[in-house]
């Protein structure tokens, strides 16, 4: 636009134009004084005015109202420029001529006289009859109230045009042709705010207050006022006028001079002209421009920096004031009035709508309003630059300055950085709310995350058949594209059609963000809305909703169950998707799992590492709870354990079809492996890689009773009754139930017995034993087979290097083993022939899943004393006798029958921390004081057993150790041989035994004599054993032999007599 210098003549012309123009429009005489003229535009060096310009301008503008047939093309000042620049068919239409010359003057210089004429014509434009006729219909109230208003007619028409766009379809008082003319007039006034008379008069003071140093022209004053629109000092009248102007821009971007000029070439280059085949939605014109150019930017096509700067301003403008989007005003009116009225704009009303939009069903917005919000977010594209969202920018400024200061201002990664710090100490509450409100809508269209789109647009086109940035497809809507991408992100090479590395990284980033809030996963929220309300209405903390859905997996509707199952399966492969868990477990990861965490490909290794280090000192409560929760969820479906699924899926399909629950699959495969092992099968049916992973799963399950539903469910009532304050982890609950075994309900007792039977045959599954004795296993049993670890520990139990806690744990397991031979696999195997042979009566009384309380072992002990066991069984019983002789607790029968006597007679010995046989010795010494027959019988059995092997009597063995070495070194232990050797040495006066040994031996002889009196032989075999082990064995045998001889002689004599009598009878 040409510039002008100050001139009294020009001011006079301006005044006359306005007086004349508005008087004509209103049909009234100008009764008032002259209107205030605008501040003259500043002179631009490029357009020096001609000397005779004022006169020419006056000639064109000061005339009384022109006749209706007057044409700009007939004016001498512009004829030459018109002929040179404008097509002939436009000459008859003044607006078309004005539009042509205004557009072309940037390319070609226009004569100064013509410039002045055009400027004055624009100023006087409201006198056009086409505006008058419409104004009398739609602006009656305004005109009647203020007959001398400056620019009110065109301002009223503009407001009416804006109002039409914000109302439901109905009667349109302004015809389409007139609407175009109104917009064209607004466009023609876009370069100089003086030309918008209503806005000029409304904002004179505000212009001086905020934009005093801003030169008029090129729309600069408009932009300055727009930027200060929400300042407290801004007058309400000016704010309203600016809002109307902005609404016109949203209908036609050309109403903004700076935007139209900056982006003119880019629009042409990117072919952003409106498609005439599409519906001409007026309110979509600015959004169409933004979408088209944003698509070009996102695709990496060149768009000038000046144009991008203008786009940024108008995107920020759309986010600041919801009223600039007619669709929002039209479709979200109810929600605004109900929930968001009275809010200061600055983007807060829009964020209020976004908050309602991401709420539950009770406060959810209408679907049409939701769609309008989504469209606005796409047009404004705040994901590309957080500064576009003023409410978010202000709320998160402190967080950005502290947590994201390393990222360039305006970089799209700022939003990702904020998401990474969600629910951390650095996050503030207001920022958290604004961030989640925005991310809710960004998550519903994959294109709104610019980094994701940049890295994945090729993969999306190749794998998901997507179109352009601002194009949608019914077959692949924006919300479904991300689902398609993440399905391909975790495919193996064998499955083919995988994502590129860069795209996969971005997909993982988005998954990590979505795990923070179920509402950020559109598919999950859509399918699980009902279940969230039904099961998880009280779970409002971060991450709780997804955990709740996983907990109720079996109760969910099928559609929700599928999507939760798929997400859980994905987490099992890459647990880093669960950002809250990873954040909680950061200390453990850094200390023990950093090598695994640094790998770009997880494949379940990180979770396995966390499980293995669940009880390290770095493990905090949040991490432990999270890891345990994921373990519990994994039990619902074997697919949720990625490593187990990949290792065993073929075996499961072949051996355990139709089984879904992980615990059932583990039991099925374990049973198969066990059967193949016991039957010495040539080839294991379960593959080697599956067997290895199966072992890992079994070990993990042994750590928490809740991971074994078959054990946990029957024992729930017992847990609450007997172990209410015991933690589940670290196998503590299982250990508590074992210790309270006698008080358990029948079903729980049976399950615990079966568990112990499995653990004794495979000690690696005994979590407490392996944990407490971990270092001792490394010290003593590195070469031992896994199934023989407990046996190895037992053999080294009394070593000086043995850890006391481990020794205590070993003793516990020995006590358990001695309650039932089935819990001692080594004994069971060694005595498999002896047990049914000698102890069948005991077996007949036994139930399948309850202990025999040491009855079978007690039976075998007696047969050991009788020296009737097979060699292998005898060796195992000797070990048991030796162990129980040192610790009375290892003899369940003795404990059961003698508990009262021990408390009465041997309390001090029983209280000793280290048991070395002192309780047994006390009972032997006090044999005569024992009142209970059952206890007396057990003590007598101990005496009987000690005669068979001196090792079974630790007190006697300790006292006679030197004598055994000197006098019985050549005697093989067992079958009472060494005891007989000592007894013979005692009777041999030539041999001098140690005093202590001699005393102990004499005591034992007295005890055995007493035992023989009070416990006569129950049968011939017992009698024979007593004779053979008696100190008077030779005398007894001599007397027995003598008796036999006497009987033989008597029989011989009687036989001869009877034979003679028989012969005499025959002779008769």
UniProtKB/TrEMBL annotation:
Comp. bias (Low complexity): 52-61
Region of interest called Disordered, as start-end residue ranges on this chain: 31-72
Alphabetized Pfam families for the sequence: Cys_rich_FGFR
InterPro entries: Cys-rich_GLG1_repeat, Cys-rich_GLG1_repeat_euk, GLG1
Domain of life per record: Eukaryota
A cellular component annotation (GO) from this entry: Golgi membrane
PROSITE patterns: GLG1_C_RICH
Compartments, record wording: Golgi outpost; Membrane
Molecular functions per Gene Ontology: fibroblast growth factor binding
Cys-rich GLG repeats: from-to residues: 173-233, 302-361, 364-426, 498-557, 618-677, 685-739, 743-801, 868-931
Signal peptide coordinates: 1-27
Pro residues bias (residue ranges): 35-48
Keywords: Glycoprotein, Membrane, Repeat, Sialic acid, Signal, Transmembrane, Transmembrane helix
Membrane topology: Single-pass type I membrane protein
Main location: Golgi
Residues passing through the membrane, by range: 1035-1058
This protein's name: Golgi apparatus protein 1
Species of provenance: Amphiprion ocellaris
